[in-house]
Design a protein that fits this description.
Elements: H1 2-15, E1 20-28, H2 33-41, H3 45-53, E2 56-66, E3 69-78, H4 83-92, H5 94-103, E4 107-108, H6 111-115, E5 121-123
């Protein structure tokens, strides 16, 4: 029984992918807060499926008001081997494209994201425990 347990643990450990954590930020138009929350309360199954297919897990989005502006902070973990290729797969997905065509106009990209023609800006991880 001990050998079986050890082998099972080894298989689980050997097959696990390294996890890379991502934090991203963007602005949110105040008049779109309710609609944005409603959309995410009933996120489309096809969008959620694609998120899983491209090796993203533990995906969360938070809302914070700072002064008179609203910001979205997202956190997710990536377990794949080629982030750029997986993000291209997500961007090529027609359901995801439709979702983004609704959500992107609600958001206010930070200046850095505008230059890069993106909506979300990556954040630097400064601590993890």
């Amino acid at each position: 029984m001990k050998k079986l347990l050890i082998i099972s643990l080894c298989i689980a450990a050997c097959n696990s992918q390294p996890v890379k954590r991502y934090g991203m930020i963007t602005g949110l138009k105040p008049e779109k807060i309710v609609e944005y929350k409603q959309l995410h309360t009933a996120a489309w199954p096809g969008v959620l499926r694609k998120i899983s297919e491209v090796n993203i897990r533990n995906y969360s989005i938070y809302l914070k008001k700072i002064d008179d502006k609203y910001y979205l902070f997202s956190y997710f973990e990536y377990t794949g081997n080629n982030f750029d290729a997986d993000m291209k797969k997500m961007a090529a997905d027609s359901t995801t494209q439709r979702w983004w065509s609704i959500t992107a106009p609600m958001q206010i990209p930070l200046p850095e994201a505008v230059v890069e023609k993106q909506t979300w800006t990556s954040m630097e991880e400064v601590f993890h425990y």
